Amino acid sequence: MEVEGGHAGVRSVGNTQRNDDNDHVTGTRPLGQPAPHQDWDDRREDEPPEQQAAPRGPRVRAPELRGRGWLNTGGEPVTLQGLRGKIVLLDFWTFCCVNCLHVLDELRPLEAKYADVLVVIGVHSPKFEHERDPEALAAAVERYGVRHPVLDDPELRTWQLYATRAWPTLSVIDPEGYVVATMAGEGHAEGLCRLLAELAAEHEAKGTLRRGDGPYVPPERSDTVLRFPGKVSSGPGRTLLVSDTARHSLVELACNGETVLRRIGSGERGRADGDVATARFNEPQGLCVLPARVAERAGYDVVVADTVNHLLRGVRLANGDVVTVCGTGRQWRSTVDFDPHDARSVDLSSPWDVVWYPAADDGSGLVIVAMAGIHQLWWFDPVKRTTGGYAGTTVEGLHDGPAPEAFLAQPSGLAVSPDGARLWIADAETSAIRYVEDDVVHTVVGAGLFDFGHRDGPAAEALLQHPLGVGALPDGSVAIADTYNGAIRRYDPQSGEVTTLATDLAEPSDVVFVGGSVVVVESAAHRLIRPVAPGAARRLAGAKHTTERPASELAPGEVTLEVVFTPPSGQKVDDTYGAPVRLEVSASPPELLVAGGGVTRELTRGLVLADGIAGGVLEVVAQVATCDAAGDNAACHLIRQDWGVPLRLAADGPRRLELVLYGESRGWAASLDQDRQDPP
Prior knowledge:
Blueprint: E1 2-3, E2 6-7, E3 60-61, E4 69-71, E5 87-93, H1 98-113, E6 118-124, H2 134-143, E7 150-152, H3 157-161, E8 166-167, E9 169-173, E10 178-184, H4 189-206, E11 232-234, E12 240-244, E13 249-253, E14 260-264, E15 287-289, H5 292-298, E16 302-306, E17 311-315, E18 322-326, E19 341-342, E20 351-357, H6 360-363, E21 366-371, E22 376-381, E23 386-391, E24 401-402, E25 411-416, E26 423-427, E27 432-437, E28 440-445, E29 451-454, E30 457-458, E31 469-472, E32 478-482, E33 487-492, E34 497-502, E35 508-514, E36 517-522, E37 527-529, E38 543-546, E39 552-554, E40 557-565, E41 571-573, E42 581-588, E43 593-595, E44 598-600, E45 604-609, E46 615-628, E47 636-649, E48 656-663, H7 666-671
Parallel strand pairs: 5-6, 6-7, 39-47, 40-48
Antiparallel strand pairs: 1-2, 1-8, 3-10, 4-7, 5-9, 9-10, 10-48, 11-12, 12-13, 13-14, 15-16, 16-17, 17-18, 19-23, 20-21, 21-22, 22-23, 24-28, 25-26, 26-27, 27-28, 29-38, 30-34, 31-32, 32-33, 33-34, 35-36, 36-37, 40-45, 41-46, 42-44, 42-46, 43-45, 46-47
């Protein structure tokens, strides 16, 4: 999940008992509730604290939606006034963000269940320059199967009206036009379901609920052989295996990259093992052909990253049969460890690419998985049928070092050097190219989460824009699918230079060297191409871009940080299995934060910001554990979010910073000059 100057994620332990008490610390105080051991003057004497609704603050009228245009509405604009009587859910997203893609999938069942009372509106608030392109946005809406209206908001007008700080953020508006809840991150589906049911019942009784169809108008369907293909691998006999991502299948092509030899999978979104006609995938991405000796023992030839199903699948090339080999199908919402686990018993999170890495496991070799959804690399042993973490802490960022301590940022492409020693990584959200060697992570290109562009030259100065693929070339150099620049780039470890091989491509997402040439997946053009001629490398001066989000102004000296959290309806903060709250604060540059850093057990903390520094980024990680308030086998949930908030220090600035994890923003309500009475 991405935020101002940083990124965030939400974890939740599904319908299981929580046993990760070592990660929890004490002292939560949800918004509107007093500190522990104080009396609750506003509750009934016979009502226990965990079962009463959190108090609501002043009612805040939802600001009207503003942007450049609309998608999925047949060209017609949508207004909140026109939706009066409906429950409206605003989903602030950007199509580069894997956490936003998780939320799209979480919302699908809610959209179906409450179709006659709920209108979901995606507010697209771009991070990268490429995402400001209306054609790129339209392609993303089709690629990810978005089935609700989308507001194109390239100038972040609606983002700012709703005081949004993070991708993704959800805002719920009741049928009378008031904001009733805001929640950042993913994993809120269960709480949302309860809230929607309560709002529907309340406004049905009041006569303010309007049932019926919403403003969604499906776009015209396009027909091509491939539809937004994701990754490519060399198959048997110089054939090409392609993940046909938007058609939820695999395609085997002849070496010309055009002739279809067979399709593996039904083409319908789903999850099912079986033969070529009945197996189902859900937006598959990476493909890895196993060495023959490993394939013989494993019982299949190809490992597939079945991304939205959160699974690895195995494919037998002889007959096209598909089997599930790793994952439960549930999304990972747990605690970090690097121990081996039974592959079919663990949860994964948006595996995006897979590769066979001969140097892993002391030279025995393993499949390495780019676990984009939690900013890690994992390993998978197809013979022992075990899996575990390999690199990354799940904190999203750019930090090198021993693999378990490194920060990664949505790793989306993998390749191995010809000698098998070096594992190359396309680290998409930091626009970086990195590698692992001897279990240590290094960066060769990339400056951070919000610096990107198209600039050739020395690797330390070169810039990319959200690369999704990387391919090893025979001479030891690396070809890069520089996706949002629409280019193929090359990094030469010998010279330390980055050059450009091809431009004007439509979102290239993978690159592989096959049969003496570079084969590129041109995803948004729905095809494979060979765009690179021998000796085509050239240098482009290019430009640097920096994602600019409105900075939060604070005064230097003593300030208060408050993370707002009100348990969702039907849940309670609970310390039965350990202390439920953890708040970690740091800063970049480190000298910005004089005092208040580190880990504490409360959601409110005093900080001291340095005087004489113009600003920086405040990095905040909040974690809260809740359990269902009723039932003998209540499900427990672990919510975690990472913020990186850009700060501008000013002597007359505020002395309080509020970040909303779940609930109502007191600061926003107080700052808006809104009608606080019931609407006429």
